[in-house]
Specification:
heterodimer; A: mainly alpha; 8% strand; B: alpha+beta; 8-stranded antiparallel beta sheet; 9 strands; 32% helix; globular
Chain lengths: 73, 151
């Protein structure tokens, strides 16, 4: 979900009683997109392992428990 | 037991993505069967295997593709255009993901969840100006596949 500012996001989240989640700058999500999706249209893309996914997040400083797939349901 | 994907399944996956990229819409298993000159039933089975491996997402109880991230098969709050072509993205992240996957500059027309207003953002020459915008991720990674539409 996209918000024009942190304040807009937090007001809406409180009103809707949504979880705290994480709020990232649009520019950081662009960096994440490049790492996550650059190879999606290649014929030999075979998916991504959990360690590979964690490495991408860690590259961008996303190293909290929120960004871990351990115990994936 | 985890589903093992065959070379054929991966060919199906690739053709799904090529179709989405070229047409801006999801293919049916029959359309992919024609493209691969394969049996329709084999492609349908591949759709379900790819779904089980979270590589595409089918509508519940259906053979129809709902998502092949970053692409959405249905209109969303995130319309992405480039050079006369158009796609729907599943979320803010995926709107940028389309630019990254296709390696093209894009215009993103996004609607805010807290109003009826829309905003135009761009990927231009590989860069973005987010104009202060923030992307909200409600759920931690380990819960993403519980309800991917909500995520």
């Amino acid at each position: 979900m996209l918000f024009r500012s942190k304040e807009h996001a937090e007001t809406w989240r409180a009103q809707m009683q949504m979880p705290a989640g994480e709020l990232l700058p649009f520019e950081q999500v662009w960096e994440l997109s490049k790492l996550w999706y650059h190879d999606r249209l290649l014929p030999d893309f075979k998916g991504r392992s959990i360690p590979e996914a964690h490495h991408i997040f860690e590259t961008l400083g996303l190293n909290t428990d929120f960004w871990r797939f351990d115990g994936l349901r | 037991m985890e589903t093992t994907l065959s070379e054929f399944d991966l060919q199906v996956r690739y053709q799904i993505y090529r179709f989405f990229a070229g047409q801006g819409a999801a293919p049916s298993h029959a359309q992919i069967a024609v493209l691969l000159q394969a049996q329709d039933e084999s492609v349908r089975a591949s759709f379900h295997k790819l779904h089980e491996r979270h590589m595409i997402f089918l509508e519940s109880g259906s053979d129809a593709i709902r998502m092949a991230n970053p692409f959405s098969a249905i209109p969303t709050k995130f319309k992405v255009t480039s050079g006369g072509r158009q796609w729907w993205a599943n979320c803010a992240w995926d709107s940028l993901g389309i630019a990254a996957a296709l390696q093209v500059d894009v215009h993103i027309e996004a609607a805010y969840p807290d109003s009826l207003e829309t905003v135009d953002l761009q990927v231009h020459q590989g860069r973005v100006d987010g104009k202060g915008h923030k992307v909200y991720f409600p759920l931690p990674c380990r819960q993403w596949y519980d309800d991917l539409v909500f995520t």
